[in-house]
Amino acid sequence: MRPNRRRQCGFTLLELLLAAALGALTTAALAQLFVSNARASVLQTGQARLQESARLALHFLADSARSAGYYGCGRGLLADGLGGTWRGDLAQDIATPVAGADDVGGGDDVSAWELGDRELKPGTDVVLFRRIEGRGHDLAQPFDADGELIIASTFVPASGQLAVLSACGQLGVLGIESIARRGGRVTLAASVDIDALAPTGFAYGDPAGPAATVLAPVASETYFIARGRFVNSRGEPSWSLWRKAGRADEVVSGVDDLQVLFGIDTTPDDGDVAPGRYVTADRIGAAIVRSVSIRVTVSSIDAFDEGDQPLEQTISQTVALRNPWTPL
Fold first, then answer.
1. Which of 93, 102, 126, 162 could form a disulfide with 218 if both were Cys (CB 3.0 to 4.6 A apart)?
2. Does residue 321 contact residue 291 with C-beta atoms inside 8 Å?
3. Phi-psi region at 64: left, alpha or beta (left = phi > 0; alpha = psi -120 to 50)
């Protein structure tokens, strides 16, 4: 008897072709899903970078704007111990807490701003905010024309640094040569006119006169758009927000544009502190600045869209000045 043989059979050609087609469709769908997820992740990364850059840029600018014009409790009279030599100096003109240049590279001369060899982006604005630094350093004893200027705590100023004696009702502008680490004795710059700084019969910190007098250096912060230190994924240089406070530092990368308008009080005697209109820096004149409107355009630096271009977003913020000022 012949042994029984098990009948053997395989897939037909049609079945193999159908299985291959189904496998190809499944693989293509999975690949498309992976590509879509990867693209969405990259897009979210670019948008997150945009939001972070915009938030940081507005934070720096708004913080400086809010503190512009802070003189401690000193308001009103201004005793000039330097004969007006500080006026017109963009870094030290404490009498004008805010200033700006509109459309740099398009007509405004910014050489006086001493921004170094940075390549400024044409068409952008430059804005500067001034104030006294911190709360100041308390006087250890009253100071008048016949006395010695001594502070209770010491700091190390740059030689010739401009400073302000801030008393309630009186401000005094002077230059500092040095301060002794021990004893807090202040050596004034040779150009200081003591009689003009402390007129006869007036004493800073005297219990019978202005109290709570402090000595504080002048602080100024200039913001502008210039070439950054980094390049994008295509090898192109990027733009950044820079801040000059003594020296220029790159504070936020991926900032392509800065536009600033100043809200001025067109009716200063009516008791209404709301700005009447917004103007460019060259139209401020002697008006009181109540607020600043800041607009920044940020980019993701690297390309995140199908056109191989960076993402861009423009965001604005209006900041009311905490220390609205009248030019001193």
1. 162
2. yes
3. alpha
